[in-house]
Design a protein that fits this description.
Blueprint (H helix, E strand, L loop, with lengths): L1 H12 L1 E7 L3 H12 L4 E5 L17 E5 H9 L5 E2 L4 E5 H14 L3 E4 L5 E6 L3 E8 L2 H6 L6 E10 L6 H9 L11 E3 L1 H10 L2 E4 L2 E3 L2 H7 L2 E2 L5 H22 L1
Parallel strand pairs: 1-2, 1-9, 2-6, 9-12, 10-13
Antiparallel strand pairs: 3-5, 4-5, 7-8, 8-9, 11-12
Helix pairs in contact: 2-4, 2-9, 3-9, 7-9
Bound molecules: ligand 48F.
Length: 251
């Protein structure tokens, strides 16, 4: 029964509209809006838990700060926020993790835990295009066993892996024709970082998108510290851009 029901899900996600990599704040927000928009999507998360950097808060303090622009989205997802100043709200890290995941799952998102994205699938056509991701179980990666992974087809792949921008880094290293360079984030400048991470969220090369701190790594924008509004706004923006691109392609 377990195998049969799990296989049904794996067969279903063998080909998706959107594969999101990482279940941190940007990935969960993207998954929430993707599923609400009726796009078939899957989130692959390396760990056996979701939330990414939310749980660590700021230096392990459990309160999370967001700006007013993200307040509405978080409320819509069920979070309980307290207004502190005209532009700042706080909430508990556990509240944010649970509500973001719950909102995404209730909207229909499929989150697969314990699955690492270790490579992308690509096609060299007129332009190089990313057409999917390559996934082993995280346990296999950790054990060092020689087990070949499988490919999952996706019309769009979103790197939501945070500071290391893992998917973009892999593509940069293994597909030179993409001409991608991951320069890494700059030192801290919170307000500028929040603005730029949202502004620069988008498609990096055909089929491969960046949201959250992965954006900061590729465009070398400053880091922000424990302020999470930009992650939420970036997760929503990437979805809006993907919808408009995929709809355009269908038209
Ligand atoms: O790091 P993470 O929370 O990324 P984010 O959504 O948010 C960043 C903030 O948490 C914080 C910050 C802003 O305030 O500076 O750091 O950009 O979540 C990334 C998730 O991706 C998973 C990882 O375990 C984490 O849960 N992940 C990373 N690499 C892979 C992966 C991979 N190759 N395959 C699958 N999951």
């Amino acid at each position: 029964m377990i195998i049969e029901e799990s296989m049904k899900d794996w067969l279903d996600i063998a080909e998706v509209d959107v594969a999101v990599v990482g279940a941190g704040p940007s990935g969960l927000t993207a998954a929430y809006y993707l599923s609400r928009a009726g796009l078939k999507s899957v989130v692959f998360e390396r760990r056996l838990s979701f939330g990414g950097g939310i749980g660590g808060g700021g230096m392990l303090y459990h309160k999370i700060v967001v700006e007013s622009s993200a307040n509405e989205i978080l409320r819509e997802m069920g979070c309980r926020l307290e207004k502190i100043t005209e532009n700042l709200y706080v909430l508990d890290n556990v509240d944010m993790i649970a509500k973001l995941a719950s909102a995404a799952i209730d909207a229909g998102a499929k989150i697969m835990l314990g699955v690492t994205v270790e490579d992308v699938v690509f096609r060299d056509e007129e332009r190089t295009r990313i057409t999917g991701v390559v996934v082993p179980w995280t346990a296999v990666t950790m054990s060092g066993l020689h087990v070949d992974p499988i490919g999952v087809k996706a019309r769009a792949v979103v790197d939501c892996t945070g500071h290391p921008a893992e998917v973009l880094s892999i593509a940069a290293r293994k597909i030179p024709r993409l001409n991608l360079e991951i320069r890494g984030e700059k030192s801290m400048w919170a307000s500028e970082s929040e603005r730029l991470v949202v502004e620069k969220t988008g498609e990096v090369c055909e089929g491969l998108w960046a949201a959250g701190m992965a954006v900061s790594a590729i465009y070398s924008t400053p880091r922000m510290g424990p302020i999470f509004g930009g992650m939420i706004l970036s997760g929503r923006k990437v979805l809006e851009m993907i919808i408009s691109k995929l709809k355009g392609r269908n038209a």
